[in-house]
Amino acid sequence: MSNETKSIFSFLDKLKSGKKGVQAKKFDTFGGVFTPDVLTILGVIMYLRLGWVVGNAGFLGAVAIILLAKTVTICTGLSMSSITTNIKIGAGGAYSIISKSLGLEAGGSIGIPLYIAQTLSAALYIIGFTEGWLRVFPSHTPIIVSSIAWISLLTISYISAQFAIRVQYIIMAIMGLSLLSFFFTPEKPVADFVLIGKFENANFWQVFAIFFPAVTGIMAGANMSGDLKDPRRSIPLGTMSSIFITMVLYIVLAYVLTRISSPEELRSNQMIMVDKAFWGPVVIAGIMGATLSSALGSMLGAPRVLQALSEQKTVPFHSIFAAKTKANEPRNAIIFTGIVIEIALILGDLNFLASLITMFFLITYGMLNLVVFIEQSMKIISFRPTFQIPRFVPFLGAVGCALIMFLIDPVFSFIAIITIVALYIWLARRELHADWGDIRGGLFLVIAERASRLSAKFPRHQITWKPDLLLPVENPELWAGPLLLIRNITYPSGSIFGFTVKNENVEQTQSALKELLTPIEEQGIIVNSVVLEDNDFLHGAKLVIQTLKGGTFRPNVLFLTIGENKLKDDTIEQLVVQADRYELGTIILRQHPRMAYGMQKNVNLWLRDKSPNWHLAMLITLQLQLNWEGKINLVTVADDKKDERRLHNFLQNLSDQARLPSMTDFYVLTGSFKETIKEAPHGDINIFGLAQDKLPFDFIRGVSELTRSSCIFVKDSGQESALV
Known about the structure:
- This protein has helices at residues 3-17, 29-41, 44-48, 50-84, 94-102, 104-136, 142-159, 161-183, 204-211, 219-222, 231-260, 263-268, 272-276, 280-311, 318-321, 331-347, 351-378, 392-408, 410-429, 440-456, 483-490, 506-521, 537-548, 569-581, 615-628, 644-658, 673-679, 697-707; strands spanning 468-472, 495-501, 526-532, 557-561, 585-590, 602-606, 631-638, 665-670, 685-689, 710-715.
- It is an alpha/beta fold.
- The radius of gyration is 36 Å and the shape is elongated.
């Protein structure tokens, strides 16, 4: 930035600071929303491309294109009007709406491209002004004309938004005169009034793509939301009135153009509105005014979006760009935006970015419609806007934006979507924290509830089994040993419901339980926990099992541990009986005090011939083998040598039916159980089936020492199958 420019800004700051008690100026509907919207919508496309559209499409074809394009903005305007009467919209317009609904990550991923699009739009409009100027003064240097326009608009926006709005009133008056000059054209009507054109230069959708940018710009007023006296009233009233008034103007212009010009003239002469006007110079002034007003609208809105993004620390250097003057002017954001615009002007040709800019606007419109549709569909009591709209309106707007994007340019559509997804991932990793709540948690809860209703219509099948553990924890502050094994049993698709029973210090116990299970939750496993207030652990545990029976997402395996204290054996016995009654499988862990889980490689699964209780044990074995990336050893015991071949075939067939890994080994050991344990292959964990009758506690405690490893004892519920 030149020293002269810095001096101008320094002088303006001193001028401002000299005024005592400067208050932030708030704008009404006409100045803050209607005027910026109208001036952005009635832009250079209207003056230089509407005739070409009519020449290709004819009057009715042009009206169809206008109405189709306006349908998208009407839906978006209605959606924006609805949601702004439900929430207190902050600075940043669309960014504020999306952030307060879908979180800072979604708001930022839309807000950052929206800021870039508006900033580069200002550069495009200035280039459009320069081209119009050069038609009148062809000897002038383009970069000098662009730079003078840039510094003039930047100065206007830097002084204050109030001053910029007043300048826009002047531009609106000039544009009004230019339209009147065209409507009072002295040209005589042509003989042939073409209703349907032949689309000589382009097909319907190509013509539509050329025209569509003419109806964008409805965010110009919403971006001023932080500077409005009453955003809830001004945004709906100003936005919708600007949409409908400009729609009528476009249709009337299409009619006049069709009436006074032949299709050939309309397609070949982009300055036809100048040539056919009552006084051509005022139309040229209107063209220049339209480009300048659109540029000024972008230069007012873009810094305010940047300032709103910075307030929530969404962008780098947020502390600098978040600053505002006492008069509510984001001066630092204005200066930075101005510098970016000048760089874009110096680089020159922005045609490559023009489609991308349109894509970002369309994605913003689509997201706004989607937000309203989601909130309507959730049917939550907090969404009660005073401006109600039917649910098909935001749905039509969202779908329309998506379709139009790909009709205009599929390549740039993909680029825009990929850019926004990348921004969302980047912002999500920054773990931003907003001062408000949003609907994301409720949205996924609603989806889960509706999915559960659908799932209830279909019977549960063994093919969908996954390990969902019910985990009683007697003392969360001491209970930590089995967590690694629990993680390896449940990862990646299982879940854990942990609970403890306590009648005092409940909050402290809940905190300890949550802290205990946090490492598993950080692995991506679904974890829920609760502290049940009860004097008796067994009574409380039974209540949990009974209560969860009626849930949609209920556990299917009770996970218990056995220590040295034999006084707890009766409690364990009763819990196993209760689990069996409520169709829960059972896993009992006897952890070796020294060996724990060894190298976490080999899993020994002990099977008995003709035993029905092996499905859950097999499924747990497979879970451990997958997570340990180890090997399975199938082990059985023969009372007599002559049974060895038959039992080996039994293990082989079982392995084939259960589709066990090809590296699985089979061991048939002959003799008494205690003797064969010494001959068994080394296992980092040994898994045994439980008999259906009374639990053999002495065996459970003793076998861990015999195998010199931790041991798991498993009992089926009848709801599992390792063969599906």
